[in-house]
Every structure is written in structure tokens, then in C-alpha cells.
Amino acid sequence: MKLKSLLAVFSFLALWTQAISCADQKKEEPKSETSAVIPAKLQEKINLDSIQTVKLSEKAKRKTEEWIMYIALNSEMERLENYTISDVINNSETIENVVDSLSVTVPPVFETNAVNARILSLKTHVNLLNENTKRIKPNPGEIKDLSAKLKLDFNNLNIQLNEVFIIENSPVE
Q1: Which positions carry the signal peptide feature in this UniProt record (predicted)?
Q2: Domains along the chain with CATH numbers
């Protein structure tokens, strides 16, 4: 009698353990599907083709040729157009370093409130981008949005660099 009850308890425990382990496997399956989807999203190209880059005027172009950090930022913005989300994650710190250096190397001719405001806007968005890329699970949609904002900020900076010379050439009334 004792042997039968011991065998029944043992059988019950074995069946119960097997049921729990099967339930755990079912829970793990969706995780593997979601983890496969995230890397696929990270390989998506950031589509910034709809945002046309603002060209510098001849005077602004000549002055920025001496501004090494602007040249570096311009290069990063050109490369950003061909990046995937994964590329942005890998290069966000470089972009942040360039923007930080840009703010401390502004040539005297461009030391205006409007130019400094555009650089501050660039710094804000690049900091948000870098913060997002350092997360355990970066948000691909947010990275795309912030990349677009960076390009818009760069365009606004170019507009302000051009306006420095428009304002300089306009007659005083």
C-alpha cells in the first residue's frame, strides 16, 4: 500500500514537472520571434531622401572650409543618408563628439545667437540619439526620427550660416 501511494506521488510529480517545463518552452517561443524582429529592424535603411540638404553660399562655403569640425559634421551628415539604424547606433558617439567639438570651435564670423541656437539644437538631438542607442533595447523608430531631426538641424544651421552674410551685406537703415 505504501509503495502504491509513493509510486502515485512520484508519478504525479513527474507529470507536474513535465507540464511546467512544456509551459516554459511555450513562453520562450515568442521571445525568440521578437528578438529576431528587432535585429531585422536595425538593418532597415534610414530614409532621409525627402529632406534636401541646404547648400551654403559661396562666402559661407569659403569660411567653413577653415572650420574643421564643420567639415567633419558635414561629412557625418552625408554619410547619415546611407546609414541603417544599426550604423547610427554604432556611430552615434562619433556624431556626438563632432557636434560637441563644433560648439567650441565656432569661428568669430559665425558667433551669432542664431548659429549658436542651431548648434544647441544639434547637441540636444544628438544627445537624445546617443542616449537611445545606449539602451539595452534601442527604439528603431525613435532612432529614425532623431536622425531626421539631426538632418533638419544641420539644414537650419546651414541656413543661419548663409544668413550671416546676407545680414552683413544688407544696408543699414
Answers
A1: 1-23
A2: 43-169 (1.20.120)
